[in-house]
Design a protein that fits this description.
With 520 residues, the protein is an alpha/beta fold. It has helices at residues 49-67, 71-81, 84-88, 136-153, 174-177, 180-186, 199-204, 220-234, 252-265, 270-286, 299-305, 312-323, 334-339, 347-357, 375-385, 392-395, 397-400, 407-420, 431-442, 453-461, 468-478, 512-519, and strands at residues 105-107, 127-130, 156-158, 193-194, 210-212, 236-239, 290-295, 364-369, 389-390, 423-426, 448-449, 504-506.
Amino acid sequence: MGVSIGKAWRLGMLSTNLALLPNNNKRKHQHVCSQQQQKKNNNNNTISWSLVCGFMLFVLGLISLLTGHMLSDLEWYSHRLVHPRLVGNYRAPIDIWKSKLSKYYYGCSDPGRNYAPAVREQMSNGYLLIAASGGLNQQRTGITDAVVVARILNATLVVPELDHHSYWKDDSDFIDIFDVDWFISYLAKDVTIVKRVPDKMMRSMEKPPYTMRVPRKSDPDYYLDQVLPILLRRQVVQLTKFDFRLANNLDDELQKLRCRVNYHALRFTKPIQELGQTLVTRMQKMAHRFIAVHLRFEPDMLAFSGCYFGGGEKERNELGEIRKRWTTLPDLSPDGERKRGKCPLTPHEVGLMLRALGFTNDTYLYVASGEIYGGDETMQPLKDLFPNIYTKEMLAEEELKPFLPFSSRLAAVDYIVCDESDVFVTNNNGNMAKILAGRRRYMGHKRTIRPNAKKLSTLFTGRHQMDWHTFARKVKACQRGFMGEPDEMRPGRGDYHEYPSSCVCERQYVDEELDTNIDN
């Protein structure tokens, strides 16, 4: 499927040593995805910032009243107006390894002063059973929302059951992946959690637990109106297929509870943590800093996407057969899906994007992936661009053997390495990509690069009609806003686990002079 490095660029543009490609300093400040030209700052401007901000806030206030925009959006815009560092530096070169603005923000998920304590088991409205669904990270979102729903219902939560029957076919239980005792104790002030329904309660029940499936992204009122009455009557209720069954936008206290669950309470078991940290240490011994690439390029994932990746009739036939497994999937236009930015980047495209952003060919990459469609042939162009590529199988062949039968535990190991990497890159917009992006924002806005697939697809298609410098300049321009900078996050944007805006606070004061000395 993949093409060799000699064919990657017409007229031999990539056949030379890409690490030695000169920088085009005259062009590197241009933003080619926008037709607007940058205005020069006028130091003699007689209009004060306060007047400008006041006028802009007045206008935005009128717009908000007329269009129904939420106050949170207005606050975000005013925040950008009163923080020139977020505006004036927008076109300045980006440090590809670390955000210069991360020092101004930190994760904050502590409950407020009026936050009520957890209801005791004996005083709760009943027991809530949760059956999570999907792979590790999809189940992670379900577990997180299960805690919040238990809080909403004043219910005692039973440790969630994991899915054993999905595509992943992993029979691991909660206790095999997460530290269950830590999970229960950490959330003791939020929700009462038990490992099982008491035997006395089960023996006293005339009927088995009531089972129901709630609609996707149901708001708290639905649970109070539809689930709570049944819980009060039956005392034990089981919610099945529990993935994305709670609304995205909740009040701040519940959003912060989501953060406490996701970023603190869900801690992996000791064996998983130790192996993950072993891989991190081995990567750090080889390189001062490294990139982790989450590469989703499995055959079933590609077939489901409905995209075409350049493999000719062989690819069309193979992925077409796999796609027939899902009888309800609509017919999609591969070209249309790519133009809409719905197709995952190929390994070769990931490499081109990283090189264009400025990462040199001596950069070390950790690749977190499952089965790569096309195998070594698909991976070779990425290896040509970045020879120092490692996987968990390469770094810990013997230590990994006990984990091999369990896809979720393997995914947990990859999760740890990706989280600890200096830069995290993804070729897709799946659950792991979103969850790790949110966690890295919460943990200090560590550099996280997700491809602007919609605009990059046009560049990749036409890359043979431009020289390397032009291509690199356009990639840098199109990736503005997709590099994990703090100003990419605002209230109401995206899924909570990707943009945890309620759980990220701004520091009131940063010693700029001290910080500059530290950086130097």
